[in-house]
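Assemble and predict.
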Amino acid sequence: MLIGVAGAALAVGALLVLAPIDHGGRRRLPERSTVAARRPARKAVAHLISHVRLGRSVRRRAIDAIVLGDVRSQRRVLVVGCIHGDERAGIAVAKRLAASSAVPGAALWIVPDLNPDGAAARTRQDANGVDLNRNFPYRWRPIGARGDQQYSGPRPLSEPESRAAYRLIQRVRPAVTIWFHQPLGVVDESGGDVGVERRFSRLTGLPLRRLKRYPGSVATWQDHRFRRATAFVVELPAGRPSRARVERWSRAVRAVAASTAARAAPRRDPASRGASASRVAG
Ligand SMILES: [Zn+2]
């Protein structure tokens, strides 16, 4: 599938087939995935930017990722600017990150907006009225009905937006994933490595708290499914963020990316599931 690409990037760059990511040979991006890459002559990886089409929303809006750095890097960090359409502050952080230079040694996968229909309509849910953060498989259960704040959808991964994120995470296996929300102004202890969350809390000045964990949340699914990876929720403060705050938060993401060891996690084997069965949500 062809990528939504900034015209400028296409003009200077070549269209490449995205090389499969090496996960010990276990997983590959789909063959139809292509990437438009801009690779200035002498600055190779430091300025390598790829655009990947992840899928489309219910209303057929594009859901894209921008990859900063080498897509084949073993040190992968995923940042999602928006999953709830009425919590859009993280989009500014994602865009700021996408406009910055690569983090040496890391690939930063940036999804500015996983819920473009919700963002356009200023609704928490997607265009089917589903709360995407209740639509993931781990401990999914039916919640509410269409239009309810936390409607979980008819079944896990019923929504094209959640499926796009699910596929991406399965293939990329980020060592660290940051999910931006609003408006509580805290870093949530979401169930992964609390050291990473604490560091992000320090860097941003957002206090570390443990929020309620909900069935079907994506961070909880990730923390359960990928044992050594860390996915966590960052609740940014309410309202539109100042430039200074966007700058500080994006720097914090870059610092975490820089210090993230390569720890793409192996599949959690079924026998170990009981150990984390008490974990719910994010
Ligand atoms: Zn939210």
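The radius of gyration is 18 Å.
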